[in-house]
Amino acid sequence: MNDLYHVEGILNRGFVGQITYMVCLEKTYSKLDIHFSFDKRTYSEEEVTPELIREVTETIRENYGLEYSEQRAKDVILGEMKTEIHTLATLNDEFIGCIHKQLDDRHMLYDGDTASDGCIPQEKIDGVLKVTVLVFNVIKDNTRYSLTVSGE
Question: pTM here?
Fold first, then answer.
Protein backbone atom coordinates (compact mmCIF):
# COMPACT_ATOMS: atom_id res chain seq x y z
CA MET A 1 0.00 0.00 0.00
CA ASN A 2 1.06 3.57 -0.61
CA ASP A 3 0.96 6.22 2.09
CA LEU A 4 -1.68 8.82 1.22
CA TYR A 5 -1.55 10.97 4.36
CA HIS A 6 0.56 11.15 7.50
CA VAL A 7 0.38 13.41 10.52
CA GLU A 8 1.93 13.41 13.98
CA GLY A 9 0.98 15.38 17.03
CA ILE A 10 1.46 15.83 20.75
CA LEU A 11 -1.26 15.82 23.39
CA ASN A 12 -0.80 17.09 26.91
CA ARG A 13 -2.12 15.76 30.18
CA GLY A 14 -5.78 16.45 30.75
CA PHE A 15 -6.64 16.99 27.09
CA VAL A 16 -10.13 15.83 26.16
CA GLY A 17 -11.60 16.48 22.74
CA GLN A 18 -11.75 15.55 19.09
CA ILE A 19 -9.31 16.18 16.27
CA THR A 20 -10.52 15.50 12.72
CA TYR A 21 -8.23 15.00 9.75
CA MET A 22 -9.69 15.24 6.24
CA VAL A 23 -8.10 13.42 3.29
CA CYS A 24 -9.34 14.11 -0.24
CA LEU A 25 -8.67 10.86 -2.06
CA GLU A 26 -7.28 11.53 -5.54
CA LYS A 27 -8.54 8.28 -7.04
CA THR A 28 -10.63 5.21 -6.20
CA TYR A 29 -9.01 2.66 -3.90
CA SER A 30 -9.93 -0.97 -3.26
CA LYS A 31 -7.93 -1.25 -0.02
CA LEU A 32 -7.46 1.20 2.81
CA ASP A 33 -5.45 1.12 6.04
CA ILE A 34 -5.98 3.76 8.69
CA HIS A 35 -3.13 3.27 11.17
CA PHE A 36 -3.19 5.14 14.49
CA SER A 37 -0.75 4.84 17.36
CA PHE A 38 0.20 6.74 20.50
CA ASP A 39 2.64 6.40 23.38
CA LYS A 40 2.49 6.96 27.14
CA ARG A 41 -0.68 4.89 27.63
CA THR A 42 0.01 4.01 31.30
CA TYR A 43 2.35 4.84 34.16
CA SER A 44 5.35 2.68 34.99
CA GLU A 45 6.34 1.85 38.56
CA GLU A 46 9.23 4.34 38.36
CA GLU A 47 6.91 7.19 37.36
CA VAL A 48 4.71 6.91 40.44
CA THR A 49 6.06 9.71 42.61
CA PRO A 50 4.88 10.88 46.04
CA GLU A 51 3.54 14.02 44.32
CA LEU A 52 1.45 11.95 41.89
CA ILE A 53 0.11 9.78 44.72
CA ARG A 54 -0.81 12.92 46.68
CA GLU A 55 -2.52 14.44 43.63
CA VAL A 56 -4.58 11.29 43.04
CA THR A 57 -5.63 10.93 46.71
CA GLU A 58 -6.66 14.62 46.81
CA THR A 59 -8.61 14.34 43.55
CA ILE A 60 -10.46 11.25 44.79
CA ARG A 61 -11.25 12.95 48.11
CA GLU A 62 -12.44 16.19 46.47
CA ASN A 63 -14.48 14.60 43.66
CA TYR A 64 -15.79 11.42 45.30
CA GLY A 65 -15.50 11.98 49.05
CA LEU A 66 -13.35 8.85 49.44
CA GLU A 67 -10.14 8.43 51.41
CA TYR A 68 -7.52 6.31 49.67
CA SER A 69 -4.35 5.07 51.30
CA GLU A 70 -1.07 5.69 49.48
CA GLN A 71 -0.98 2.02 48.47
CA ARG A 72 -4.54 2.10 47.11
CA ALA A 73 -3.75 5.28 45.15
CA LYS A 74 -0.62 3.63 43.74
CA ASP A 75 -2.67 0.57 42.75
CA VAL A 76 -5.15 2.85 40.94
CA ILE A 77 -2.37 4.72 39.14
CA LEU A 78 -0.68 1.53 37.95
CA GLY A 79 -3.74 -0.62 37.33
CA GLU A 80 -6.58 1.66 36.32
CA MET A 81 -5.32 5.00 34.96
CA LYS A 82 -4.72 5.09 31.22
CA THR A 83 -4.69 7.34 28.21
CA GLU A 84 -7.80 6.53 26.21
CA ILE A 85 -8.04 7.46 22.54
CA HIS A 86 -10.45 6.02 19.95
CA THR A 87 -10.58 6.47 16.17
CA LEU A 88 -13.63 7.05 13.97
CA ALA A 89 -13.78 7.16 10.16
CA THR A 90 -16.31 8.49 7.68
CA LEU A 91 -16.23 8.38 3.89
CA ASN A 92 -18.20 11.10 2.11
CA ASP A 93 -19.87 11.84 5.45
CA GLU A 94 -21.03 8.22 5.86
CA PHE A 95 -19.89 6.28 8.92
CA ILE A 96 -17.47 3.48 7.98
CA GLY A 97 -16.01 2.49 11.34
CA CYS A 98 -14.91 3.21 14.88
CA ILE A 99 -12.31 1.44 17.01
CA HIS A 100 -12.93 1.50 20.77
CA LYS A 101 -10.42 -1.17 21.72
CA GLN A 102 -7.86 -0.22 24.34
CA LEU A 103 -4.92 -0.44 21.96
CA ASP A 104 -2.09 2.06 21.60
CA ASP A 105 -1.46 0.79 18.06
CA ARG A 106 -4.37 -0.04 15.78
CA HIS A 107 -5.34 -0.48 12.16
CA MET A 108 -8.71 0.08 10.54
CA LEU A 109 -8.43 -2.13 7.46
CA TYR A 110 -10.80 -2.12 4.50
CA ASP A 111 -10.40 -4.65 1.70
CA GLY A 112 -13.42 -4.96 -0.57
CA ASP A 113 -15.93 -7.18 1.23
CA THR A 114 -13.95 -7.44 4.49
CA ALA A 115 -12.97 -4.97 7.19
CA SER A 116 -11.51 -4.85 10.69
CA ASP A 117 -13.76 -5.34 13.72
CA GLY A 118 -15.83 -2.20 14.21
CA CYS A 119 -15.56 -1.24 10.54
CA ILE A 120 -17.97 -1.57 7.60
CA PRO A 121 -16.55 -3.11 4.40
CA GLN A 122 -16.20 -0.71 1.46
CA GLU A 123 -16.10 -1.95 -2.13
CA LYS A 124 -15.14 1.43 -3.55
CA ILE A 125 -13.10 3.92 -1.55
CA ASP A 126 -13.10 7.40 -3.03
CA GLY A 127 -14.06 10.96 -2.20
CA VAL A 128 -13.43 12.55 1.18
CA LEU A 129 -12.17 10.47 4.08
CA LYS A 130 -12.40 11.97 7.55
CA VAL A 131 -10.60 10.38 10.47
CA THR A 132 -11.53 11.67 13.91
CA VAL A 133 -9.25 11.06 16.85
CA LEU A 134 -11.55 10.86 19.89
CA VAL A 135 -9.53 11.72 22.99
CA PHE A 136 -11.21 10.78 26.27
CA ASN A 137 -8.25 11.00 28.62
CA VAL A 138 -4.54 11.83 28.43
CA ILE A 139 -2.59 11.05 31.60
CA LYS A 140 0.87 12.37 30.66
CA ASP A 141 2.30 15.47 29.01
CA ASN A 142 3.94 15.11 25.61
CA THR A 143 1.93 12.06 24.58
CA ARG A 144 2.86 11.57 20.94
CA TYR A 145 0.48 10.20 18.33
CA SER A 146 0.71 9.27 14.68
CA LEU A 147 -1.94 8.77 12.00
CA THR A 148 -1.16 7.28 8.59
CA VAL A 149 -3.68 6.58 5.83
CA SER A 150 -2.53 4.12 3.16
CA GLY A 151 -4.33 2.86 0.08
CA GLU A 152 -4.07 0.57 -2.88
Answer: 0.90
**Rounded average pLDDT over 83-89:** 97
Q: What is the pLDDT of residues 5-39, one digit of tens each?
A: 999 999 999 999 999 999 999 999 999 999 999 99
CATH number of 2-42+82-151: 2.60.120.380
What is the residue type of 60? I
φ and ψ at residue 98, rounded to 5 degrees: -155, 130
The residues spanned by each domain of the chain are 2-42+82-151, 45-79
Phi, psi dihedrals of residue 117, rounded to the nearest 5°: -55, 135
pLDDT of residue 129: 98
Identify whether the C-beta of residue 116 lies closer than 8 Å to the C-beta of residue 33: no
Confidence of residue 102 (pLDDT cuts 50, 70, 90): confident
